[in-house]
Specification:
467 residues, mainly alpha, globular, disordered C terminus
């Protein structure tokens, strides 16, 4: 391996749990810093603007996720293809995939940025956003929609690096960008008094910096990124595979986002204080999910590389190791949250009513963390194998869970408004169990995107396209 590829990791050799942990730790640290974008926004706004301004940011969470879902799904699809080509030791096809990814991610990012900016006001009005927070919510959503171009660029590059086993390079630049985000948040809010617009601008600038610096460094230090003009040529085989893998994931994300939007609409109906408390719980849970997500991403890369190398048994060992680690972490967090919940939520503000709702809501959802932990390694084994259509099914399950349960559960007397928190937990349970059943049925073992079963066919198709 050339020196400049020192962070590239072949996960087809070595002890599975060690490889997963080595990959997941830098990714976890990076995810924590990425969450600082939103966390710092919330803390700064909650303490230096108002609790209603914090509620305005929270009211846009599900919509931001929805607008980014297409870009995120396509990034996942590209990552799976790169991982399997890398596992099959085919450098030229890795470069072709990277070249095509530039076009795919760029076009999708621009489209979703325009859509998000254009419909921010009408959608928030449709969701019956409280008039007290409406204007701030619209302004914040428009700014962050423009930032999708930066977010998509960064996620595309970092996804490719991770597919090559490199979870460290994206971390370095994300930390740098996070520090810039914190500084700009304070400057735009405290010095210029821009409120929620200021934190949105700060986040967009920080994301742009992380994307550009990561691309420059990747080109200089990673030989796989030194693509030529022929690698930039759109190839139908790669585009089709990207769409076949990425679109179901994008639809999954869209359905999850839609379910969150419906849930947010129910939450908004209980007033600004409840919306703000729900935002606090969501912010805390976004941190809780980071270890699960990081290990899940490690499982996806690990699965893709090992299936590309035709090593199914190693995938099973890695999956079991990931589930064991998630179970230990989930159990510890449940105990922590039941003991120290008041101290944890108090960092978001001082409003007594808001804090009490957040305390109760967090204790409810924490009871379901073990099922939340089951979702990520299971889903990512399936995604890494190329069983992307099941991603769409899990999105349907989440949509049914939240949309079908959120409002009805609030009608149960002993639950009331807290039914929205129970709906979230039950949805995690449903999704975790359905994903695990799909994994046990074993269809993912028969899918070959870059293995020997397609090798001759692909060589013929690629050679024709290159001509």
């Amino acid at each position: 391996m050339p020196k400049q590829n020192q962070f590239v990791k072949d996960m087809t050799r070595g002890t599975p749990w060690k490889l997963l942990l080595q990959f997941a730790v830098p990714l976890f640290i990076g995810n924590i810093f990425q969450q600082l974008y939103n966390m710092v926004d919330s803390i700064v706004v909650g303490n230096f603007v108002s609790s209603h301004a914090l509620g305005a940011i929270g009211a846009t969470n599900s919509l931001q996720f929805f607008f980014f879902s297409l870009v995120g799904g396509l990034s996942v699809g590209i990552g799976i293809i790169v991982a399997q080509f890398f596992g099959a030791s085919n450098e030229e096809k890795v470069k072709n995939a990277i070249g095509n990814a530039i076009w795919i991610i760029s076009i999708a990012s621009v489209i979703m940025a325009v859509i998000g900016f254009s419909i921010a006001g009408p959608v928030l009005r449709l969701l019956q956003t409280d008039p007290v927070i409406f204007n701030d919510a619209v302004a914040y959503l428009k700014v962050t929609s423009i930032g999708i171009c930066c977010t998509g660029l960064y996620n595309g590059v970092s996804g490719i690096l991770r597919a090559l086993g490199d979870s460290k390079t994206p971390l370095f630049f994300l930390i740098f960008a996070s520090i810039i985000n914190v500084i700009l948040d304070l400057v735009f809010v405290l010095v210029f008094g821009l409120g929620v617009i200021g934190v949105g601008i700060a986040t967009a600038i920080a994301q742009f910096i992380s994307a550009v610096t990561c691309i420059i460094y990747a080109y200089r230090s990673n030989t796989y990124f030194r693509i030529k003009r022929k690698n930039l040529k759109m190839q139908r085989k790669i585009v089709r595979k990207s769409m076949r893998l990425g679109v179901p994931v994008a639809l999954q994300n869209s359905l999850i986002a839609f379910s969150l939007i419906v849930l947010q609409a129910v939450v908004n109906g209980y007033g600004a204080n409840f919306t703000t408390a729900f935002t606090v719980v969501s912010r805390i849970e976004s941190l809780v999910q980071q270890p699960f997500m990081s290990l899940g991403a490690a499982v996806s890369t690990y699965t893709g590389q090992n299936l590309g190398a035709e090593k199914v048994k190693r995938v099973i060992k890695g999956f079991n190791s990931a589930n064991m680690m998630n179970t230990i972490f989930g159990t510890a967090v449940i105990a922590l949250f039941w003991i120290f919940t008041p101290q944890i939520v108090s960092i978001f503000g001082k409003d007594t009513e808001v804090l009490q709702i957040a305390i109760d809501g967090l204790r409810i959802t924490s009871c379901f963390y073990l099922f939340l932990g089951l979702i990520y390694p299971t889903r990512n084994v399936l995604n890494g194998a190329g069983d992307a259509m099941f991603s769409l099914f899990t999105g349907i399950v989440e949509c049914i869970g939240r949309v079908g349960l959120a409002y009805p559960l609030t009608l149960i007397p002993f639950m009331g408004s807290y039914g929205v928190f129970y709906a979230t937990g039950i949805t995690w349970f449903m999704n975790g169990m359905f994903s695990f059943i799909r994994y046990k049925r074993g269809k993912w073992k028969t899918i070959h995107l870059a293995g020997t079963k397609e090798k001759q066919e692909e060589e013929i198709l690629f050679s024709k396209e290159e001509k």
